[in-house]
Amino acid sequence: MTVARAPRLHQRQGLWRLEDDQADGRFAPDVTASWHGRIYARTSSTTAVALDARTGKDRPAGLDVAPVLVNEYRGLVLVGRELLAYPTRG
Question: How far apart are CA 24 and CA 86, in angstroms?
């Protein structure tokens, strides 16, 4: 069973938990990065999603790839042995 979780800092409880059977008909995603309230994840080798960090619900992101590192300028994506930089939006 795959589980994605958002821990609440300084407390023992979590904000949310997303298990395979709760993931909108897909497997719970593998988290790759986070930035300013958005969690970037991969649900398969070809599907990337963005989740709201507070709720665990999908956020529109228009992602083709799941970044491994994000800042206000670029999202870095590891494809095989190549590190690619994509401009960030919104």
Answer: 27
What SS3 string covers the chain?
A: CCEEEEECCCCCCEEEEEEHHHCCCCCCCEEEEEECCEEEEECCCCCEEEEECCCCCEECCCCCCCCCEECCCEEEEEECCEEEEEECCC
Cα 89 to Cα 29: distance, rounded to the nearest angstrom = 22
The per-residue pLDDT for 14 is 67
**Residue 43 one-letter amino acid:** T
Beta bridge partners of 4: 18
pTM higher than 0.85 for the full model? no
